[in-house]
Amino acid sequence: MTATPVATHPFVGLWVTADGRIRQRLLPGGRYTEARGNREGAYTGDYRVEGSMIYYRDDTGFSADGEFRDDVLYHAGMVMFRRNG
Q: Which InterPro entries would you find in this protein's record (predicted)?
């Protein structure tokens, strides 16, 4: 499966847990930043999208994945929803 160029894929933007505590911004160009509570930039790193799957590698080398289903991101036990902003 070929990775979709991240600058053009439809998942770029802000994803937030229902309580707003965790906010993940998928940036064009394959970078992300994740805020936790009041801690902006708690995690940063690279990501790639292959179909409905997303693969992360943070700047410390930790890796994780997630899946987009029906415009919801399921990632590391979290359920994240798209938010404008």
A: Atu4866-like_sf, Uncharacterised_Atu4866
pTM listed for this prediction: 0.86
Contacts with 63 (C-beta within 8 Å, 6 or more apart), sequence order: 55, 56, 57
Q: Using CA atoms, how far apart are residues 81 and 15, in angstroms rounded to an integer?
A: 5
Domains delineated in the chain: 13-83 (2.40.128.290)
Burial class (CB in 10 A: 0-12, 13-18, 19+), 10: exposed
By the 10 Å C-beta count (0-12 exposed, 13-18 middle, 19+ buried), 56 is classed as buried
Quick one: which of 3, 13, 18, 5 has its CA closest to 65? 3
